[in-house]
Amino acid sequence: MRTLRRPDVVISLLLIAACVFLGAVGLSGRAPASFQSLEIYSGQRGAVDPEAVSRLARARAAQPRLASGLVAKLGVSLRSERLPALVDAVELPWKSPRLDESSSGWTRQDDRWVWFPGARRETLGVPFFAPDPRNSPRLADFDELWIDYQNLSSRNSCVPAPEMMLRSGGAVVAFNAPASSDLETIDVVGARWSKKTYGYAIGRMLGLPPDEDWRYTQFGRFTVLQRRLHEDLSNLAEVALVFQNDAPVVHVNLRVKFGDSPGFAELFQLGETATRVGADGRSAAHIDMKKVLGSRLSDPRAKAYLEEITVFVRGEQEKVAKERPLREINLYHGSLPGRIDKIAPFRDRFVLDLRALSGSKSGVFSWGKIGFSAYDPDSVCAVKLDNVRLVSFFDKARPVFLREGEELARRWGGPFAVALGSGTRVEWPRVQGYLPFQSARPGGEELLFDERKIIVTIDVERHQARLEAKTAFKPEPFTVKPAADRRLIQGVGYKVRSDDAFTGAVLAQDGLVLEGYGKRVEFDWPISARLDQASRFFAALAEGGESIAKGALTLELQSGGSRTLDVVPNQPVLLDAGTGSIKAARLRLDLNRSPYRLKLKELALFSPGLLTENEAFDEKWPTSNPISRRLHPEITVPAQKKWLRVVSGRVLGLAPQNAGRAHTLDWTTRIGGDADWARGVRFTYQVPRTLQDDDACWMNLAIRWDRRTVSRDVCFTRSRGSVLLPLGRFLDAKDDLAAFGAMRSIAWKVRLGRRALMGGDVAFAFGVELEGAGARSIRQDLQDWNALGIAGDASAWKPDGRLLGDIVKRPLRLVEDGEALEKILAGRIAPAEHPYFRLDSVAVEPRAPLSAEAWQKIVGAGGGKRSGSLRGPLILGGLLVLMGLGWSAFRGGWRSFRGANFDAGGGHRVLFAAAFLAAAVLYAKGARAPVDAAENMLFTLGGLAAVGALRGLIGSLAPWLKPRFPRLAYSVEGGGAPYFTSALIGVAATAALAVSSNSAAANQAAIVACYCLAVGVGKELFSLGKKRA
After folding, report:
1. Considering the domain 183-334 in this protein, what is its CATH number?
2. Please, is 261 exposed, middle or buried when counting C-beta atoms within 10 Å of its C-beta (0-12, 13-18, 19+)?
């Protein structure tokens, strides 16, 4: 019996590794001539290849003519994630329960149920049913139960607990989802307040036990309130901060420490926490701790502690400490049967996961009941039920941008009971009209009061007044006008009226805040929109729901006449207006409480619809924030007006011979791109004081649209300031802004009086911004994405929008002009992160295919040879392989060849020698030739050589394997079996190399496996032919 020859095995393994390595180098060294590309940036590595940049720079210096024909190509794809797509939603009707106040403790007030302290603590049961008793839904067909409700209490959270009855095999099965809770109250108004000292910070750093005192300090315009504590968060569901009704809360921070070991706590900045006013007249900010901590407490053994609460309140610290707007903090401990999602400022959604329920769900839904109970016996509990739905989902990988449509639908009260099929479509509201109440300026701004000929401030520091046929602007501190002057507010794209005076009107970043004593508030919204049978109206109200007795919406039709219907804030209202166009909408809110405080976030007209991913990519949706675009009014002086000296928008002086004469300075500000979102023009100005004294109405503005130009004189009472001019000021009552077309330019004309430029250099300065709200599509987001992020140049990549449609189906390779090469070489590529898109690669390619020699001159930076970084290891490795294999192959290869017995005894030595010869030729040719010439030899001959090496390895192992593993004898015996075994080895090597991310070597191993399989099949066919013969 022959023994194992270890040198043969070792040498065979060395030869296999060498062949695979050389073949892999051939695959990775350069792309074939048919795909000429030099990768500069790889999204998978997240880094720029400095060697590629250096080679490109050298090529541009050595071969400028060839390099001039290069372009940059960006590989872009959509970000995706596995998201549950809503497939079906079935609305379950519910019925208002009959209330016996003496026994239940609950009372009915309009469309809400209220429980008052001192009444009996009974659970309010609201029954709900199947939509069709003859065809009741099966619970197993749905994933979640949604209960949408409005919690109108500031302090007391009324959480629903559903109960469902199912029919299963003649029996009735009950599913209960009870809520257990415990309320802990921290008294703030009765605690001791003191100014913050260094001792407080030192105690926090050292981890000393906290006390019950509150500290305060001044931070700019805000007072910061802080208190340390040590509250276990493992069973804390919600934190509610209760304030006075008018407390100007700005910001809330929580400091949380994870684990029991000493250490610093982690800061969670919650930003502007939305507050809601309850039926008890106080406001509260509710913080869902599960959402704040996310998955940090997914492990039930994990520990977390609330170490500090920080609250930012607007105002001076002495006043805040005296008034103490923060009254108390409620900590709600316990567990809920499901989760609570906040879908609107007043609107919550209780979600019960049906998949997590224990027991059989095969029964048919019969009826159910929702139980509302009060947490705290000392506080009012007020709740209003909106709807109950069963929903099902389809889990699949989808583009991330589809979230926008679904979130918009849910924000406006959806889903709207539509079946989405197997997840191929998404519910996406088609926006027909949108009016956001948000300021583009931090801290908000005072609004414009309007009565007859009077206009009062646009900002806190500005004041306006209207003259006959002219508009006067007077920057000055805001002062309260008589009540008669404060019943009408002029906003950007809307007006607000009241039957009595507004005591306050502020456009904040999170909504329009109105305060007053009237009994009615009306919003006039001039809008041109075409409605359909599914159109709906939604008014988002963040505060003041308890003050509204009734709402009504009046639509003025383009065909004449009007239509009025009842509306409820924070609920979608089906307009049922058929198909037609409207020219204006008016929302009227009747109030039952005085004084009132309302905060309105947005008005929307929309039509729910089902869109494919491609359609959603092009569908416009409203932006969440106001849009502000800065324009650049460059003052230019024509040749005939060289009596002025102008530098970059500033008039420096007037030639002496022209002093004392009247002149006109005019220029035009062009508006590039789409500006249909604009609702107003804001401009800052500075002119000589003598000009203001000479003529208050020294400016004329003319706005030009596609089909209309409107001109107005503007009057001022000061020589410098900043004003916002709503576009409505330029229009008559009968004008339809939508019919004007796109806004193109603003023409400015300044009339210089005789004394305007008398002596000395003077300055004119003008700044212009467009403000408004807009709608954008995902395609427009992609067009405006600064994907390369080169040197802060936002125009580094602006692809043709018509080329972007297929990105929904497959990744794109988008062409950038040649100027991008200069930017790539001049600065570092730092791709700008985008929530929807991903930059996969940046490569340089020729505009038209080049010859192999021409392309090699570029990628080889003029050398025409393989990169020097590979040349040294190749030469050294090649010498070692040649020395070792030469000794073994010529030692016995020729003697075996003379026997011509390929399967017996030392027949494997013939293949071994042949493999060596092929490898030697391969290396000698590949190591010295340019890459493009040697590439095919490297991986083709390398694969053939590896086949012979594998056959030699198995022949060397056969004498050792047969006596030890007889069952494997067939895999190493003659015929095609050894080659099939080699193919299996090649497949295993391919998988191992692919897992280790060595794609080039994995590719070469796969080629070797294919060659082995082909030789084995040929060997078997040859043997079969001999037997038949």
Report:
1. 2.60.120
2. exposed
- Phi–psi pair at 340, nearest 5 degrees: -115, 120
CATH code 2.60.120.1300 region(s) in the chain: 627-772
In percent, the amount of the chain with pLDDT more than 70 equals 57
Residue with tokens 């590794």: 17
Q: Calculate mean pLDDT across residues 718-723.
A: 72
Better-predicted residue by pLDDT, 3 or 319 = 319
Q: Which of 883, 914, 884, 918 is nearest to 897 (CA)?
A: 914
What are 827-879's pLDDT values in tens digits?
Answer: 556 666 778 888 888 888 887 777 766 777 777 644 333 334 444 455 555 55
Whole-prediction pTM: 0.52
For the chain, how big is the Rg over CA atoms in Å?
Answer: 39
E-assigned strands of 608-731? 610-611, 621-622, 627-631, 644-647, 650-654, 663-670, 678-686, 699-705, 709-716, 720-726
Between CA 628 and CA 679 the distance in angstroms is: 10
Please state whether the peptide bond connecting residue 959 to the residue before it is cis, i.e. omega within 30 degrees of 0: no
What residue ranges in 475-614 does DSSP mark as E strands?
488-490, 495-498, 502-508, 511-516, 520-531, 536-543, 548-557, 562-567, 573-574, 580-591, 596-607, 610-611
Instruction: Count the neighbouring beta carbons within 10 Å of the beta carbon of residue 423.
Output: 16
**Placement of tokens 């166009």 in the chain:** 581
The CA-based angle 496-500-506, given to 5 degrees, is 45
Neighbours of 28 (CB within 10 A): 16
| pLDDT surpassing 60 at residue 795 | no
| Cβ count near 639 (within 10 Å) | 5
Q: How far is CA 79 from the centre of its chain?
A: 11
To the nearest 5 percent, what fractions of the chain are helix, strand and coil?
A: 30, 40, 35
Question: Side chain identity at 907, as an amino acid letter?
Answer: G
Quote the CA–CA distance of 304 and 297 in Å, as a whole number: 8
Closest CA to 766 of 676, 856, 667: 667
Burial label, 188 (beta-carbon count in 10 A; 0-12, 13-18, 19+): buried
Q: Which fold has domain 627-772?
A: Jelly Rolls (2.60.120)
What is the CATH topology of the domain spanning 433-607?
A: Jelly Rolls (2.60.120)
**Spatial CA neighbour of 593 closest among 547, 550, 551, 549:** 547
pLDDT at 324: 86
Name the 3-class secondary structure at 402: helix
Q: DSSP of 714-758, one letter per residue?
A: EEESSSEEEEEEEGGGGS-TT--GGGG--EEEEEEEEEE-TTTT-
pLDDT per residue as tens digits for the range 845-857: 887 777 766 777 7
Q: Are 510 and 272 in contact (CB under 8 A)?
A: yes
pLDDT at 538 over 90: yes
